[in-house]
Specification:
Distance between the termini: 5 Å
Strand content: 25-35%
Largest sheet: 4 strands, mixed
Bound molecules: ligand EPZ
Structural class: alpha/beta
Number of helices: 14
Strand order of the largest sheet: 22-23-1-24
Radius of gyration: 21 Å
Shape: elongated
Helix content: 25-40%
Number of strands: 24
Length: about 425
Protein backbone atom coordinates (compact mmCIF):
# COMPACT_ATOMS: atom_id res chain seq x y z
CA UNK A 1 0.00 0.00 0.00
CA UNK A 2 1.36 3.42 -0.96
CA UNK A 3 2.28 6.05 1.57
CA UNK A 4 2.95 9.78 1.42
CA UNK A 5 6.09 11.25 2.98
CA UNK A 6 5.74 14.92 3.91
CA UNK A 7 8.21 17.43 5.34
CA UNK A 8 6.19 20.34 6.63
CA UNK A 9 6.91 23.99 7.37
CA UNK A 10 6.98 25.41 3.85
CA UNK A 11 4.36 28.00 2.80
CA UNK A 12 2.49 26.90 -0.33
CA UNK A 13 2.65 29.46 -3.12
CA UNK A 14 1.43 29.56 -6.71
CA UNK A 15 -1.68 28.45 -8.59
CA UNK A 16 -3.38 25.09 -8.93
CA UNK A 17 -6.41 23.86 -10.90
CA UNK A 18 -9.09 21.73 -9.27
CA UNK A 19 -10.35 18.55 -10.92
CA UNK A 20 -13.92 17.53 -11.69
CA UNK A 21 -16.16 16.72 -8.74
CA UNK A 22 -16.17 13.07 -7.61
CA UNK A 23 -19.65 13.42 -6.14
CA UNK A 24 -21.02 14.84 -9.39
CA UNK A 25 -19.24 12.35 -11.67
CA UNK A 26 -20.58 9.28 -9.86
CA UNK A 27 -24.34 10.02 -10.27
CA UNK A 28 -23.72 11.36 -13.79
CA UNK A 29 -22.17 8.04 -14.78
CA UNK A 30 -25.00 6.08 -13.16
CA UNK A 31 -27.44 8.16 -15.24
CA UNK A 32 -26.29 6.32 -18.38
CA UNK A 33 -28.53 3.43 -17.22
CA UNK A 34 -31.54 5.65 -17.90
CA UNK A 35 -31.04 5.85 -21.67
CA UNK A 36 -30.02 3.75 -24.69
CA UNK A 37 -28.31 6.88 -25.98
CA UNK A 38 -24.67 7.85 -25.54
CA UNK A 39 -23.52 10.02 -22.65
CA UNK A 40 -20.40 12.11 -23.23
CA UNK A 41 -19.05 13.32 -19.89
CA UNK A 42 -16.17 15.82 -19.71
CA UNK A 43 -13.96 16.82 -16.76
CA UNK A 44 -14.39 13.37 -15.18
CA UNK A 45 -11.66 13.05 -12.50
CA UNK A 46 -9.28 10.10 -12.56
CA UNK A 47 -10.08 8.58 -9.13
CA UNK A 48 -10.45 5.15 -7.55
CA UNK A 49 -14.17 5.71 -6.98
CA UNK A 50 -14.67 6.61 -10.66
CA UNK A 51 -12.84 3.40 -11.56
CA UNK A 52 -15.12 1.48 -9.21
CA UNK A 53 -18.33 2.77 -10.79
CA UNK A 54 -16.87 2.13 -14.25
CA UNK A 55 -16.26 -1.49 -13.22
CA UNK A 56 -19.79 -1.70 -11.85
CA UNK A 57 -21.36 -0.31 -15.03
CA UNK A 58 -19.30 -2.53 -17.33
CA UNK A 59 -20.23 -5.53 -15.14
CA UNK A 60 -23.83 -4.70 -16.10
CA UNK A 61 -22.95 -4.36 -19.77
CA UNK A 62 -22.41 -0.62 -20.10
CA UNK A 63 -19.71 0.26 -22.64
CA UNK A 64 -17.41 3.05 -21.53
CA UNK A 65 -14.29 4.46 -23.12
CA UNK A 66 -12.08 7.41 -22.29
CA UNK A 67 -11.63 9.23 -25.60
CA UNK A 68 -9.39 11.93 -24.10
CA UNK A 69 -8.10 12.69 -20.58
CA UNK A 70 -11.25 13.24 -18.49
CA UNK A 71 -13.68 12.71 -21.39
CA UNK A 72 -15.68 9.49 -21.15
CA UNK A 73 -18.24 8.08 -23.60
CA UNK A 74 -20.79 5.70 -22.05
CA UNK A 75 -23.63 3.68 -23.58
CA UNK A 76 -26.00 1.22 -21.91
CA UNK A 77 -27.62 -0.32 -24.99
CA UNK A 78 -26.41 -3.77 -23.99
CA UNK A 79 -27.28 -3.93 -20.28
CA UNK A 80 -27.73 -7.62 -19.61
CA UNK A 81 -27.71 -7.93 -15.88
CA UNK A 82 -29.26 -5.81 -13.18
CA UNK A 83 -27.27 -6.67 -10.10
CA UNK A 84 -24.92 -4.51 -8.01
CA UNK A 85 -22.77 -7.04 -6.13
CA UNK A 86 -21.76 -6.75 -2.47
CA UNK A 87 -18.03 -6.47 -3.12
CA UNK A 88 -18.60 -3.35 -5.22
CA UNK A 89 -21.11 -1.71 -2.84
CA UNK A 90 -18.85 -2.60 0.12
CA UNK A 91 -16.02 -0.78 -1.69
CA UNK A 92 -18.10 2.24 -2.55
CA UNK A 93 -21.51 3.02 -1.09
CA UNK A 94 -22.33 5.32 -4.02
CA UNK A 95 -22.85 2.12 -6.08
CA UNK A 96 -26.42 2.26 -4.78
CA UNK A 97 -26.93 5.08 -7.30
CA UNK A 98 -27.57 2.34 -9.87
CA UNK A 99 -30.76 1.31 -8.06
CA UNK A 100 -33.08 4.11 -9.15
CA UNK A 101 -32.02 4.12 -12.82
CA UNK A 102 -32.19 0.30 -13.11
CA UNK A 103 -35.71 0.25 -11.68
CA UNK A 104 -36.87 3.19 -13.80
CA UNK A 105 -35.59 1.85 -17.11
CA UNK A 106 -35.62 -1.94 -16.71
CA UNK A 107 -38.16 -2.46 -13.92
CA UNK A 108 -35.86 -4.60 -11.80
CA UNK A 109 -32.70 -4.42 -9.71
CA UNK A 110 -30.78 -6.53 -7.19
CA UNK A 111 -28.49 -4.25 -5.20
CA UNK A 112 -26.45 -5.19 -2.15
CA UNK A 113 -27.20 -3.29 1.02
CA UNK A 114 -24.14 -1.09 1.65
CA UNK A 115 -23.35 -2.19 5.18
CA UNK A 116 -21.48 0.32 7.30
CA UNK A 117 -18.31 2.23 6.60
CA UNK A 118 -15.69 4.07 8.64
CA UNK A 119 -17.82 7.18 9.12
CA UNK A 120 -21.08 5.54 10.15
CA UNK A 121 -23.80 2.91 9.43
CA UNK A 122 -25.01 4.88 6.39
CA UNK A 123 -28.31 3.05 5.71
CA UNK A 124 -30.35 3.46 2.52
CA UNK A 125 -33.79 3.22 4.13
CA UNK A 126 -34.80 6.61 2.69
CA UNK A 127 -33.84 5.51 -0.83
CA UNK A 128 -35.98 2.37 -0.44
CA UNK A 129 -38.94 4.15 1.18
CA UNK A 130 -39.02 6.61 -1.73
CA UNK A 131 -38.91 3.89 -4.38
CA UNK A 132 -41.59 1.95 -2.53
CA UNK A 133 -43.70 5.11 -2.55
CA UNK A 134 -43.29 5.13 -6.33
CA UNK A 135 -44.79 1.66 -6.54
CA UNK A 136 -41.68 -0.52 -6.44
CA UNK A 137 -41.90 -3.90 -4.73
CA UNK A 138 -38.92 -4.04 -2.37
CA UNK A 139 -37.66 -7.21 -0.65
CA UNK A 140 -34.51 -7.77 1.40
CA UNK A 141 -33.00 -11.14 0.50
CA UNK A 142 -29.63 -12.32 1.92
CA UNK A 143 -28.27 -8.78 2.30
CA UNK A 144 -29.55 -7.66 -1.06
CA UNK A 145 -32.35 -5.30 -2.03
CA UNK A 146 -34.48 -7.09 -4.64
CA UNK A 147 -36.70 -4.48 -6.32
CA UNK A 148 -39.31 -4.80 -9.06
CA UNK A 149 -41.57 -2.23 -10.73
CA UNK A 150 -43.22 -2.77 -14.14
CA UNK A 151 -43.49 1.04 -14.25
CA UNK A 152 -42.77 3.45 -11.41
CA UNK A 153 -45.53 5.96 -10.71
CA UNK A 154 -44.96 9.57 -9.70
CA UNK A 155 -45.36 10.24 -5.97
CA UNK A 156 -44.87 12.86 -3.29
CA UNK A 157 -41.78 11.80 -1.31
CA UNK A 158 -40.68 13.50 1.92
CA UNK A 159 -37.12 12.79 3.11
CA UNK A 160 -37.10 12.79 6.93
CA UNK A 161 -33.33 13.36 6.71
CA UNK A 162 -31.57 15.29 3.96
CA UNK A 163 -29.82 12.68 1.85
CA UNK A 164 -27.65 13.57 -1.14
CA UNK A 165 -27.57 10.23 -2.96
CA UNK A 166 -31.12 9.53 -1.79
CA UNK A 167 -32.24 12.70 -3.57
CA UNK A 168 -30.19 11.76 -6.64
CA UNK A 169 -31.49 8.18 -6.75
CA UNK A 170 -35.14 9.25 -6.50
CA UNK A 171 -34.70 12.14 -8.93
CA UNK A 172 -33.28 9.74 -11.52
CA UNK A 173 -36.03 7.18 -10.87
CA UNK A 174 -38.73 9.85 -11.21
CA UNK A 175 -37.56 10.96 -14.67
CA UNK A 176 -39.11 7.86 -16.29
CA UNK A 177 -41.99 7.32 -13.87
CA UNK A 178 -45.61 7.69 -15.00
CA UNK A 179 -46.82 11.03 -13.73
CA UNK A 180 -45.28 13.70 -11.55
CA UNK A 181 -43.08 13.28 -8.45
CA UNK A 182 -42.36 15.87 -5.78
CA UNK A 183 -39.26 15.37 -3.61
CA UNK A 184 -39.59 17.29 -0.34
CA UNK A 185 -36.70 18.11 2.01
CA UNK A 186 -34.43 17.27 -0.91
CA UNK A 187 -30.67 17.84 -0.77
CA UNK A 188 -29.54 21.16 -2.30
CA UNK A 189 -25.88 20.27 -2.92
CA UNK A 190 -24.30 21.57 -6.16
CA UNK A 191 -23.81 17.95 -7.23
CA UNK A 192 -27.60 17.43 -7.13
CA UNK A 193 -28.02 20.53 -9.31
CA UNK A 194 -25.36 19.28 -11.73
CA UNK A 195 -27.11 15.91 -12.06
CA UNK A 196 -30.44 17.67 -12.72
CA UNK A 197 -28.71 19.74 -15.41
CA UNK A 198 -27.49 16.56 -17.12
CA UNK A 199 -30.90 14.87 -16.81
CA UNK A 200 -32.61 17.89 -18.37
CA UNK A 201 -30.16 17.70 -21.29
CA UNK A 202 -31.31 14.07 -21.65
CA UNK A 203 -34.93 15.23 -21.91
CA UNK A 204 -36.04 14.98 -18.28
CA UNK A 205 -38.51 17.52 -16.94
CA UNK A 206 -37.13 18.72 -13.58
CA UNK A 207 -37.84 21.91 -11.66
CA UNK A 208 -36.48 23.10 -8.32
CA UNK A 209 -33.10 21.33 -8.20
CA UNK A 210 -30.98 23.23 -5.68
CA UNK A 211 -33.99 23.91 -3.48
CA UNK A 212 -35.65 21.70 -0.87
CA UNK A 213 -38.50 20.82 -3.26
CA UNK A 214 -37.78 19.16 -6.58
CA UNK A 215 -40.59 18.42 -9.04
CA UNK A 216 -40.09 15.81 -11.76
CA UNK A 217 -42.61 15.15 -14.51
CA UNK A 218 -42.00 11.65 -15.86
CA UNK A 219 -41.36 11.12 -19.59
CA UNK A 220 -41.42 7.99 -21.77
CA UNK A 221 -37.71 7.89 -22.51
CA UNK A 222 -34.49 9.86 -22.31
CA UNK A 223 -31.82 10.53 -24.92
CA UNK A 224 -28.04 10.70 -24.76
CA UNK A 225 -26.34 14.03 -23.93
CA UNK A 226 -23.02 15.78 -23.49
CA UNK A 227 -22.12 17.35 -20.15
CA UNK A 228 -19.14 18.84 -18.33
CA UNK A 229 -18.86 17.82 -14.69
CA UNK A 230 -18.64 20.72 -12.21
CA UNK A 231 -15.35 21.33 -10.37
CA UNK A 232 -14.81 19.61 -7.03
CA UNK A 233 -15.74 22.02 -4.23
CA UNK A 234 -14.29 19.71 -1.57
CA UNK A 235 -10.93 19.49 -3.31
CA UNK A 236 -11.02 23.29 -3.68
CA UNK A 237 -11.81 23.66 0.04
CA UNK A 238 -9.02 21.22 0.91
CA UNK A 239 -6.51 23.24 -1.16
CA UNK A 240 -7.76 26.45 0.49
CA UNK A 241 -7.04 24.96 3.92
CA UNK A 242 -3.62 23.83 2.65
CA UNK A 243 -2.83 27.47 1.77
CA UNK A 244 -4.06 28.66 5.18
CA UNK A 245 -2.36 26.01 7.32
CA UNK A 246 1.05 26.67 5.70
CA UNK A 247 0.62 30.51 5.81
CA UNK A 248 0.88 30.52 2.04
CA UNK A 249 -0.64 32.33 -0.93
CA UNK A 250 -2.46 30.11 -3.41
CA UNK A 251 -4.73 30.80 -6.39
CA UNK A 252 -7.22 27.93 -6.73
CA UNK A 253 -8.24 27.95 -10.37
CA UNK A 254 -11.32 26.46 -12.00
CA UNK A 255 -13.37 26.32 -8.80
CA UNK A 256 -16.83 27.85 -8.31
CA UNK A 257 -16.57 29.94 -5.08
CA UNK A 258 -20.37 29.97 -4.66
CA UNK A 259 -20.16 26.21 -4.07
CA UNK A 260 -18.28 26.56 -0.80
CA UNK A 261 -19.17 29.94 0.66
CA UNK A 262 -19.63 28.53 4.18
CA UNK A 263 -16.06 27.15 4.15
CA UNK A 264 -14.68 30.42 2.76
CA UNK A 265 -16.50 32.39 5.47
CA UNK A 266 -14.95 30.23 8.20
CA UNK A 267 -11.48 30.60 6.67
CA UNK A 268 -11.95 34.38 6.68
CA UNK A 269 -13.13 34.23 10.31
CA UNK A 270 -9.90 32.36 11.06
CA UNK A 271 -7.93 35.25 9.56
CA UNK A 272 -7.31 34.16 5.98
CA UNK A 273 -7.61 36.65 3.13
CA UNK A 274 -10.00 35.00 0.65
CA UNK A 275 -10.64 36.83 -2.60
CA UNK A 276 -12.48 35.84 -5.77
CA UNK A 277 -10.01 36.45 -8.59
CA UNK A 278 -9.89 35.83 -12.32
CA UNK A 279 -10.79 32.19 -12.80
CA UNK A 280 -10.89 31.16 -9.19
CA UNK A 281 -10.19 31.93 -5.58
CA UNK A 282 -7.05 33.33 -3.92
CA UNK A 283 -6.32 32.29 -0.33
CA UNK A 284 -3.60 33.95 1.74
CA UNK A 285 -2.63 33.58 5.40
CA UNK A 286 0.09 35.50 7.20
CA UNK A 287 -0.18 34.20 10.77
CA UNK A 288 -1.50 31.39 12.94
CA UNK A 289 -5.28 31.04 12.50
CA UNK A 290 -7.73 32.42 15.01
CA UNK A 291 -9.94 29.75 16.67
CA UNK A 292 -13.31 29.32 14.94
CA UNK A 293 -16.29 27.15 15.95
CA UNK A 294 -17.83 25.05 13.16
CA UNK A 295 -20.98 22.93 12.90
CA UNK A 296 -21.44 20.76 9.81
CA UNK A 297 -24.78 20.94 8.00
CA UNK A 298 -26.27 20.01 4.62
CA UNK A 299 -25.61 22.53 1.82
CA UNK A 300 -25.41 25.53 1.94
CA UNK A 301 -24.07 24.94 5.47
CA UNK A 302 -20.49 23.96 6.29
CA UNK A 303 -19.86 20.70 4.43
CA UNK A 304 -19.27 17.58 6.52
CA UNK A 305 -16.70 16.61 3.87
CA UNK A 306 -14.61 19.61 4.99
CA UNK A 307 -14.83 18.95 8.74
CA UNK A 308 -11.64 16.88 9.12
CA UNK A 309 -9.61 19.28 6.98
CA UNK A 310 -10.75 22.33 8.94
CA UNK A 311 -9.98 20.55 12.21
CA UNK A 312 -6.36 20.19 11.10
CA UNK A 313 -6.26 23.98 10.73
CA UNK A 314 -7.85 24.54 14.14
CA UNK A 315 -5.26 22.20 15.69
CA UNK A 316 -2.72 25.03 15.30
CA UNK A 317 -5.10 27.93 16.04
CA UNK A 318 -4.42 30.55 18.73
CA UNK A 319 -7.04 29.22 21.13
CA UNK A 320 -9.95 26.86 21.63
CA UNK A 321 -12.51 25.93 19.00
CA UNK A 322 -15.46 23.53 18.98
CA UNK A 323 -16.19 21.44 15.89
CA UNK A 324 -19.57 19.73 15.81
CA UNK A 325 -20.39 16.96 13.32
CA UNK A 326 -24.16 16.69 12.81
CA UNK A 327 -24.35 14.68 9.57
CA UNK A 328 -22.48 11.43 10.33
CA UNK A 329 -22.23 9.43 13.53
CA UNK A 330 -18.54 8.65 13.49
CA UNK A 331 -16.61 11.17 11.47
CA UNK A 332 -13.82 11.83 14.01
CA UNK A 333 -11.53 8.97 12.98
CA UNK A 334 -8.80 11.49 12.13
CA UNK A 335 -8.58 12.75 15.72
CA UNK A 336 -6.48 9.93 17.24
CA UNK A 337 -4.05 10.26 14.33
CA UNK A 338 -3.72 14.05 14.43
CA UNK A 339 -3.32 13.75 18.20
CA UNK A 340 -0.22 11.61 17.59
CA UNK A 341 1.19 14.73 15.91
CA UNK A 342 0.69 16.69 19.12
CA UNK A 343 -2.81 18.07 18.56
CA UNK A 344 -4.87 18.65 21.73
CA UNK A 345 -8.40 17.51 20.87
CA UNK A 346 -11.05 16.00 23.14
CA UNK A 347 -14.32 14.49 21.92
CA UNK A 348 -17.70 14.58 23.67
CA UNK A 349 -20.46 12.99 21.56
CA UNK A 350 -20.74 14.89 18.29
CA UNK A 351 -18.50 17.77 19.40
CA UNK A 352 -14.71 17.95 19.36
CA UNK A 353 -12.96 20.61 21.46
CA UNK A 354 -9.70 21.65 19.79
CA UNK A 355 -7.09 23.54 21.81
CA UNK A 356 -4.66 24.97 19.28
CA UNK A 357 -0.90 24.57 19.63
CA UNK A 358 1.78 26.57 17.74
CA UNK A 359 3.13 23.68 15.73
CA UNK A 360 2.40 20.01 15.06
CA UNK A 361 5.11 17.36 15.13
CA UNK A 362 5.69 14.99 12.23
CA UNK A 363 4.82 11.33 12.89
CA UNK A 364 3.80 8.14 11.09
CA UNK A 365 -0.03 8.22 10.84
CA UNK A 366 -2.74 6.02 9.35
CA UNK A 367 -5.50 7.13 6.97
CA UNK A 368 -8.90 5.66 7.85
CA UNK A 369 -11.27 7.28 5.35
CA UNK A 370 -11.13 9.71 2.48
CA UNK A 371 -11.40 13.07 4.24
CA UNK A 372 -9.49 11.91 7.33
CA UNK A 373 -6.55 11.13 5.05
CA UNK A 374 -6.78 14.63 3.55
CA UNK A 375 -6.66 16.15 7.03
CA UNK A 376 -3.50 14.14 7.86
CA UNK A 377 -1.81 15.44 4.70
CA UNK A 378 -2.71 19.01 5.71
CA UNK A 379 -1.38 18.43 9.22
CA UNK A 380 1.84 17.03 7.73
CA UNK A 381 2.28 20.15 5.56
CA UNK A 382 2.33 22.25 8.72
CA UNK A 383 4.23 19.90 11.05
CA UNK A 384 7.94 20.17 11.67
CA UNK A 385 10.03 17.16 10.64
CA UNK A 386 8.60 14.26 8.69
CA UNK A 387 5.07 12.84 8.54
CA UNK A 388 4.31 9.54 6.81
CA UNK A 389 0.66 8.98 5.90
CA UNK A 390 -0.04 5.26 5.42
CA UNK A 391 -2.92 3.67 3.45
CA UNK A 392 -3.28 6.53 1.01
CA UNK A 393 -5.60 4.39 -1.10
CA UNK A 394 -8.27 6.15 0.97
CA UNK A 395 -7.01 9.49 -0.38
CA UNK A 396 -6.89 8.19 -3.94
CA UNK A 397 -10.62 7.48 -3.80
CA UNK A 398 -11.41 11.19 -3.95
CA UNK A 399 -8.35 13.26 -4.85
CA UNK A 400 -6.70 13.26 -8.27
CA UNK A 401 -2.88 13.44 -7.93
CA UNK A 402 -3.10 15.52 -4.74
CA UNK A 403 0.61 15.15 -4.01
CA UNK A 404 1.49 16.45 -7.50
CA UNK A 405 -0.74 19.47 -6.98
CA UNK A 406 0.82 20.18 -3.61
CA UNK A 407 4.36 19.68 -5.01
CA UNK A 408 3.55 22.23 -7.73
CA UNK A 409 2.83 24.71 -4.92
CA UNK A 410 6.18 24.02 -3.26
CA UNK A 411 5.02 21.39 -0.81
CA UNK A 412 7.64 18.80 0.16
CA UNK A 413 5.52 15.70 -0.38
CA UNK A 414 6.25 12.47 -2.24
CA UNK A 415 4.53 9.14 -2.78
CA UNK A 416 6.38 5.94 -1.86
CA UNK A 417 4.87 2.94 -3.58
CA UNK A 418 4.97 -0.39 -1.75
C1 LIG B 1 -23.02 11.94 0.02
O1 LIG B 1 -23.08 10.71 0.70
C2 LIG B 1 -21.57 12.12 -0.39
N1 LIG B 1 -21.19 11.04 -1.29
C3 LIG B 1 -20.68 12.10 0.85
O2 LIG B 1 -19.36 12.34 0.43
C4 LIG B 1 -21.12 13.24 1.77
O3 LIG B 1 -20.36 13.19 2.96
C5 LIG B 1 -22.62 13.09 2.10
O4 LIG B 1 -23.39 13.02 0.89
C6 LIG B 1 -23.13 14.27 2.91
O5 LIG B 1 -22.91 15.46 2.22
C7 LIG B 1 -21.58 11.11 -2.60
O6 LIG B 1 -22.24 12.04 -3.01
C8 LIG B 1 -21.14 9.97 -3.47
P1 LIG B 1 -26.32 11.18 2.82
P2 LIG B 1 -24.51 10.06 1.03
O7 LIG B 1 -27.28 10.18 2.30
O8 LIG B 1 -25.51 10.47 0.02
C9 LIG B 1 -28.36 9.40 6.68
C10 LIG B 1 -17.06 12.02 0.42
O9 LIG B 1 -16.25 12.22 1.33
N2 LIG B 1 -29.16 8.57 5.78
O10 LIG B 1 -26.51 12.61 2.45
O11 LIG B 1 -24.27 8.62 1.26
C11 LIG B 1 -26.89 9.02 6.66
O12 LIG B 1 -26.64 7.95 7.53
C12 LIG B 1 -18.36 11.32 0.72
O13 LIG B 1 -16.93 12.40 -0.76
C13 LIG B 1 -30.13 7.72 6.30
O14 LIG B 1 -30.33 7.65 7.51
O15 LIG B 1 -24.86 10.76 2.41
C14 LIG B 1 -26.22 10.30 7.12
O16 LIG B 1 -26.24 10.34 8.52
C15 LIG B 1 -18.40 10.79 2.13
N3 LIG B 1 -30.87 6.96 5.45
C16 LIG B 1 -27.14 11.39 6.55
O17 LIG B 1 -28.38 10.75 6.23
C17 LIG B 1 -30.70 7.00 4.09
O18 LIG B 1 -31.43 6.29 3.37
C18 LIG B 1 -26.61 12.05 5.28
O19 LIG B 1 -26.24 11.00 4.41
C19 LIG B 1 -29.71 7.87 3.57
C20 LIG B 1 -28.96 8.65 4.43
Amino acid sequence: MDRLVIRGGKPLRGSVTVSGAKNAALPAMAAVLLTPGELILENVPSLRDVGTIERLLSFMGVESREVAPGTVHLTSRAVRQFEVPYDLVRTMRASVLALGPLLARFGKARVSLPGGCAIGPRPINLHLAGLHGMGAEIDLVEGYVVAKAPRLTGARIHFETVTVTGTENLMMAATLAKGTSVLENAACEPEVVDLACLLRKMGARIEGAGTATITVEGVEDLTGAQHRIIPDRIEAGTLAVAAAITQGDVLIQGCIPQHFEAVMAKLQEAGAAVAVEEGGLRVRMAARPRPVDVTTEPFPGFATDMQAQFMALMAIAEGRSVITETVFENRFMHIPEISRMGADISVGGRAAVVRGIPCLRGAPVMATDLRASASLVLAGLQARAETVVHRVYHLDRGYERLEAKLQSLGGEIRRVED
